[in-house]
């Protein structure tokens, strides 16, 4: 059984030494990480190919370029993000220093999943570094080649005390979770998410859970079907459907279904040729367990497109199923593979009702030319994200937060939201000990009286924020003088009452 005491002890000592509070130190670590991605791009692509038979183009877009751009974004914005915020002050705090200080949590744990084994681990790691934390980095053991790359190469670029890599499966992770962390960031299934959440409860450790679930895709008859089919199939088939935000199933009428199937057959031929298995552009299922699980799901409904498979390569042909029932396993569990069931609904209203009767999805996709209908979907449903006439791409918009809601997760990251996830917003009030300030606030002290009470109510009453700093300074001085006179009057009067 692994023992993580030493690793944690070194990380805690490193955090208490204060080195990660230094912004130049954080910047240097992030630059090193960026250099690591640049210098080892080919190795990363090879590891992804070995684990998932991932085509190079997909690896570039969704892992290496994504991770590089994420770090570039952080490096551009870091000096601004680390600044304390100075929120508009109320009247009563006009003379005080009111600020929100960005504090790192301390030693945080980031646990990655196998489907995007580098990006899902190292993007939150970069955010945690940017925010000034020490980070224990735990790759998924299931993508074994990528886990090996992370364990062998990342420590050559990052400070080893502050950012240790630990490897292992469920038992090692369970052991790791016995340690006390200041924050846990987990990506993976909802089932394991519950285990992580329960473990975090022991020390009330704050947690982000990036989970999965079934993300529906509604199509109406107003769409340009060719474009809709391409965008939906690309979202379904990238990484062989093993994407948390892949459109899980389609909701549409029978009429739309027929057109979808005709176009889908044509698009698949255009992309992968007559013999899909020989195409280099389709990844494979990660392992035999998932392969068998997917074959079980293919038994639901009727195959309208595809349906072939080859266990020796863990190949499953892109498959569209029709005539599925709500109670079929394929409509109950997350698919996470290249199988797309179509469930028929009569109207958009029925689709909304269907979605709202289930767990809140990670994302809802709507394909329609009607802005009114898109708005209606957005307004009437709850999900981690929402995208109209597109799939997957919302995840790449770095100014948007990414995360689930309800059973699809809690918390968010990407860009500034990642920095904020790993930052404790410390409320800071600074006063001086001047006689004027003391006089102004002395009505709070016993012995209490009605007069003191009404003076306090007057001082504390919420007022519209003052328009600008210069005016507020002038007003503060004027009010300070006025209130001192008033306070003196009240206090003298109450002592003579
Ligand atoms: P996985 O098996 O790689 O597990 C994720 C992590 O949890 C791994 O590091 C693993 O070691 C650890 N783990 C597994 N079992 C554990 C246990 N019993 N106790 C403690 N730790 C354990 O990945 P997975 O869970 O199969 O990932 C697929 C799921 O992740 C899908 O549901 C998918 O939708 C979801 N996912 C979500 C996102 C997101 O950003 N929301 C991204 C990718 C995947």
UniProtKB/TrEMBL annotation:
Single GO term (MF): oxidoreductase activity, acting on the aldehyde or oxo group of donors, NAD or NADP as acceptor
UniProt keyword Transport present: no
UniProt-listed InterPro entries: Ald_DH/histidinol_DH (IPR016161), Ald_DH_C (IPR016163), Ald_DH_CS_CYS (IPR016160), Ald_DH_CS_GLU (IPR029510), Ald_DH_N (IPR016162), Aldehyde_DH_dom (IPR015590), Aldehyde_DH_NAD(P) (IPR012394)
GO biological processes: aldehyde metabolic process
Xref: Gene3D superfamilies: Aldehyde Dehydrogenase, Chain A, domain 1 (3.40.605.10), Aldehyde Dehydrogenase, Chain A, domain 2 (3.40.309.10)
Domain Aldehyde dehydrogenase: 3-427
Annotated transmembrane regions: 471-491
Keywords: Membrane, NAD, Oxidoreductase, Transmembrane, Transmembrane helix
List of catalytic residues: 210, 244
PROSITE patterns (alphabetical): ALDEHYDE_DEHYDR_CYS (PS00070), ALDEHYDE_DEHYDR_GLU (PS00687)
Keyword Transmembrane among record annotations: yes
PANTHER family: ALDEHYDE DEHYDROGENASE, ALDEHYDE DEHYDROGENASE TYPE III, ISOFORM Q
Family: Belongs to the aldehyde dehydrogenase family.
Protein name: Aldehyde dehydrogenase
């Amino acid at each position: 059984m692994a023992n993580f005491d030493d690793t944690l002890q070194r990380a805690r000592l490193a955090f208490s030494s204060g080195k990660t509070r230094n912004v130049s130190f954080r910047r240097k670590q992030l630059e090193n990480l960026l250099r690591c991605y640049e210098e080892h791009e080919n190795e990363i692509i090879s590891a992804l190919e070995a684990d998932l038979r991932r085509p190079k183009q997909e690896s570039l877009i969704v892992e290496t370029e994504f991770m590089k751009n994420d770090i570039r974004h952080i490096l551009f914005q870091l000096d601004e993000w680390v600044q304390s915020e100075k929120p508009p002050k109320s009247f009563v705090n006009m003379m005080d220093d009111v600020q929100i200080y960005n504090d790192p949590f301390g030693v945080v744990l980031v646990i990655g999943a196998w489907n995007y084994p580098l990006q899902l681990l190292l993007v939150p790691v970069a955010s945690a570094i940017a925010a000034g934390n020490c980070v224990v980095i735990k790759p998924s053991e299931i993508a074994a080649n990528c886990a090996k790359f992370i364990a062998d190469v990342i420590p050559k670029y990052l400070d080893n005390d502050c950012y240790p890599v630990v490897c292992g499966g469920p038992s090692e992770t369970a052991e790791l979770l016995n340690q006390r962390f200041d924050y846990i960031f987990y990506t993976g299934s909802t089932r394991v998410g519950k285990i992580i959440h329960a473990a975090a409860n022991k020390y009330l450790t704050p947690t982000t859970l990036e989970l999965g679930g079934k993300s529906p895709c509604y199509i109406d008859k107003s769409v340009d079907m060719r474009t809709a089919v391409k965008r939906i199939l690309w979202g379904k088939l990238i990484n062989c459907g093993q994407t948390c935000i892949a459109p899980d199933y389609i909701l549409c009428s029978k009429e739309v279904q027929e057109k979808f199937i005709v176009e889908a057959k044509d698009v698949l031929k255009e992309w992968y040729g007559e013999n899909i298995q020989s195409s280099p552009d389709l990844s494979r299922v990660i392992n035999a367990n998932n392969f068998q699980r997917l074959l079980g799901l293919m038994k639901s409904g009727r195959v309208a497109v595809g349906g072939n498979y080859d266990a020796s390569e863990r190949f499953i042909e892109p498959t569209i199923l029709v005539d599925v029932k709500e109670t079929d396993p394929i409509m109950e569990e997350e698919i996470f593979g290249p199988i797309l069931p179509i469930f028929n609904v009569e109207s958009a209203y029925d689709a909304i009702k269907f979605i709202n009767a289930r767990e809140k999805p990670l994302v809802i996709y709507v394909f329609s030319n009607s802005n009114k209908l898109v708005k209606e979907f957005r307004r009437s449903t709850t999900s981690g994200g929402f995208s109209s006439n597109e799939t997957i791409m919302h995840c790449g918009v770095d100014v948007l937060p990414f995360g689930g809601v309800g059973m699809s997760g809690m918390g968010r990251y990407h860009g500034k939201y990642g920095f904020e996830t790993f930052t404790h917003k410390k409320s800071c009030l600074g006063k001086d000990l001047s006689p004027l300030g003391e006089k102004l606030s002395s009505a709070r002290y016993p012995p209490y009286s009605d007069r003191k009470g009404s003076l306090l109510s007057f001082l504390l009453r919420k007022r519209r924020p003052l328009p600008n700093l210069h005016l507020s300074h002038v007003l503060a001085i004027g009010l300070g003088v006025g209130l001192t006179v008033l306070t003196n009057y009240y206090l003298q009067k109450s002592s003579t009452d």
